[in-house]
From TrEMBL:
Domain named Rho-GAP: residues: 212-348
PANTHER family recorded: OLIGOPHRENIN 1 (PTHR12552), RHO GTPASE-ACTIVATING PROTEIN GRAF (PTHR12552:SF1)
Keyword flag Transcription regulation: no
Organism of this sequence: Culex quinquefasciatus (Southern house mosquito)
Keywords, in A-Z order: Coiled coil, GTPase activation
Coiled-coil parts of chain: 50-84
InterPro entries: AH/BAR_dom_sf, BAR_dom, GRAF_fam, PH-like_dom_sf, PH_domain, PH_GRAF, Rho_GTPase_activation_prot, RhoGAP_dom
GO biological process, any: signal transduction
Domain PH: 95-199
Gene name for this UniProt entry: 6050587
Descriptive protein name: Oligophrenin 1
Length: 348
């Protein structure tokens, strides 16, 4: 009897252990499988939501970026206004409207030198004084020269002539003095003190170069250059990037824009074998660029320059296209026709 109960309990115990071990196998796998399934469903739904919200997120990102740029710009302007206000309140009163060091360009044979001057300006009387200093010893080399300001014009920035402006004085109206400030901020301060003007290149020039007109001679030259380039093919590498030899370009322009000759005689050299040295593709392309770049009035015109810039800053593509389309049709007839020729060529 005891032996039977012992065997029964022993077998029950062994079966119980086996049952537990077998149950662990599938129950654990079922838990892992359920977790993986729920995980995949979660990411699948997240992907679909992300795809649906992609356009909204892109638009929101652009708006946030623009808002941040506006914030930075506004903060910078506020800081500048604060700085100016504090400067006007904190700086001691001076008898001069502006004073400081400037460099004067002095032209000599085949070169130009820059001499350092300590300059002052009184806006009420328009008196400008300058005292030359020796940059080695730091002492003055001459007496102070006082002149009466007639005009002040900001100078076009170049690599070696940055921060420059031109002054003309009533005592010497035939001489233009070119001064260089210490920085762009310093130049702005001098221009503000002397009521400086923008350079005349921002307005239509009065003394036009005859070769810079958009007339029949120019149209014929441009059409012929484009015709030759397109006939040869536009596959040449760097056609408008690699410049030609300057002497050949000048020779080509002189022959193609010679107004003393008829159109037939002017353009005859394009078919002349003796002129083959100036008829390389890169020379023709460079001459075409030079002619358009040196027009007295740009193709897009000075008058519409700021309007084109504003149109390019429109937020939507449709808005940009609409504004540019309207501005192009406001161009003078000859400018519109030349622009049409150039764009058709660039599209080919």
């Amino acid at each position: 009897m005891l032996e039977r109960e012992y065997l029964q309990e022993s077998l029950s115990y062994v079966l119980g252990i086996q049952e537990v071990q077998e149950r662990i196998k599938f129950e654990f796998v079922e838990i892992i499988l359920r977790f993986i399934s729920d995980w995949l469903v979660f990411y699948h739904l997240g992907h679909e939501v992300a795809e649906d919200a992609k356009d909204y997120l892109s638009d929101l990102q652009l708006k946030v970026q623009k808002t941040r740029e506006n914030f930075d710009e506004t903060r910078q302007k506020a800081q500048e206004l604060k700085h100016r206000y504090m400067e006007s309140k904190m700086k001691p009163e001076s008898e001069y409207t502006k004073q400081g060091y400037l460099f004067l360009m002095e032209k000599k044979a085949f070169t130009a030198t820059w001499s350092k001057y300590y300059c002052t300006y009184k806006k009420q009387s328009k008196k400008f004084s300058m005292l030359q200093f020796n940059q080695i010893s730091g002492r003055s080399q001459s007496s102070t020269e006082v002149l009466t300001l007639a005009s002040c014009t900001r100078r076009l920035s170049e690599f070696e002539k940055r921060y420059c402006f031109d002054l003309i004085f009533e005592e010497r109206p035939a001489i233009t003095y070119t001064f260089q400030a210490l920085s762009e901020e310093d130049r702005k301060a001098w221009l503000n003190a002397m009521d400086g003007k923008e350079p005349t290149y921002l307005a239509p020039a009065t003394n036009h170069n005859e070769d810079g007109h958009l007339d029949e001679v120019g149209f014929a030259f441009v059409r012929k250059c484009i015709e030759v380039l397109e006939r040869r093919g536009l596959e040449e590498e760097g056609l408008y990037r690699i410049g030609g030899v300057s002497t050949k370009i000048t020779k080509l322009l002189n022959m193609g824009l010679d107004r003393k000759k008829t159109e037939k005689d002017r353009l005859m050299f394009f078919n002349d074998e003796q002129s083959s040295d100036v008829l390389e593709s890169k020379t023709i392309a460079s001459a075409l660029k030079h002619y358009l770049r040196n027009l007295n009035e740009p193709l897009m015109t000075f008058r519409l320059h700021h309007s084109f810039i504003s149109s390019a800053k429109q937020e939507t593509r449709q808005g940009r296209l609409s504004d540019v389309h309207q501005l192009i049709h406001r161009l003078p007839k000859n400018h519109f026709e030349m622009l049409d020729i150039v764009i058709r060529h660039l599209k080919s």
